[in-house]
Design brief:
Elements: H1 7-36, H2 47-59, E1 70-74, E2 94-103, E3 107-115, E4 118-125, E5 128-130, E6 139-143, H3 152-160, E7 170-175, E8 179-180, E9 191-201, E10 204-216, E11 220-231, E12 245-248, E13 251-262
Antiparallel strand pairs: 1-4, 1-13, 2-3, 2-12, 2-13, 4-5, 4-6, 5-8, 6-7, 7-9, 9-10, 10-11, 11-13
């Protein structure tokens, strides 16, 4: 004849079972949040990115520009680039990449790398973006050594693997043809156009066509867009190797968001 457990003993078992279940739930939630969750920020064409840019511009001081004609350079005073820009939309200037990878025991993840260390200059004459009086073409230059992701070990790896920033510390984008925006009816709303460029990454230069969106709010010019997919092999980039990386896509997306101010 079975002996029935006393009520106190049954309550104790139920209590510990509930605590164990709660701990399992907490562990699963923490595992999802810190490991499995896709932490990549929305891309530059998203509504969230637009709202971040609008907020950054509204917080910046304004100085009305009477004429677009002249030389324009990167405005480093717009927004703030920090670690949050690697997992959230960002209101500052930056250039970066996106690539998908598969991690052992975790699954798929979109890796985002960005840097705010960008220099650029272009000249406007009438309704065209043209070469400077000295014949210099509009150029964007990127310090690749400051390119970071949301993972310190990956940051160290890209110095000697894949894009090898220690060996190729600079990337550039040179606009090879004048950009005519005379057909743009509302510069504040902005316009989208395709531009022909010479893109240099990893020491290799390729001719590319990039779709960009540009706008003018009365004091600053905003330019953003992306290019992709870019085949890694076209730029002689080998896939990174790591014990925790199961596979990496053979293509990446380049993205940029740049604020310009006019030189007085």
């Amino acid at each position: 004849m079975e002996t029935e457990q006393p009520p106190k003993s049954r309550r104790s078992i139920a209590k510990w079972a509930a605590i164990l279940l709660l701990l399992i739930v907490v562990i699963v939630v923490l595992l999802w949040y810190f490991v499995l969750r896709d932490t990549s920020p929305a891309d530059v064409n998203s509504q969230a990115a637009k709202e971040a840019r609008d907020e950054a511009l509204s917080e910046a001081g304004t100085s009305e520009v009477q004429s677009l004609d002249g030389v324009w350079i990167i405005d480093t005073e717009i927004g703030e680039f920090n670690d949050a820009c690697l997992t959230e939309v960002c209101g500052s200037s930056f250039v970066g990449f996106r690539i998908d990878e598969e991690l052992v025991g975790i699954g798929g993840k979109t890796v985002v790398g960005r840097t705010p260390d960008v220099s650029a200059q272009f000249t406007i004459n009438g309704s065209e973006i043209v070469s400077s009086a000295e014949g210099d073409r509009p150029t964007v230059t990127v310090d690749m050594t400051s390119l970071i992701t949301d993972d310190a070990s990956r940051n160290n790896a890209i110095k000697r693997q894949a894009i090898e920033t220690s060996k190729f510390p600079e990337a550039s984008l040179v606009i090879t043809e004048s950009i005519d925006f005379s057909s743009a009816t509302d510069l504040e709303t902005g316009f989208t156009t395709e531009i022909l460029v010479d893109l240099t990454i990893h020491g290799v230069t390729q001719e590319e066509t990039i779709e960009v969106t540009a706008s003018f709010d009365g004091s600053r010019i905003l330019v953003f867009g992306n290019l992709g997919p870019i085949l890694l092999s076209d730029y002689e980039i080998e896939k990174p190797r790591s014990a925790v990386v199961l596979s990496v896509e053979d293509n990446a997306l380049m993205e940029f968001q740049l604020f310009f101010k006019k030189i007085d």
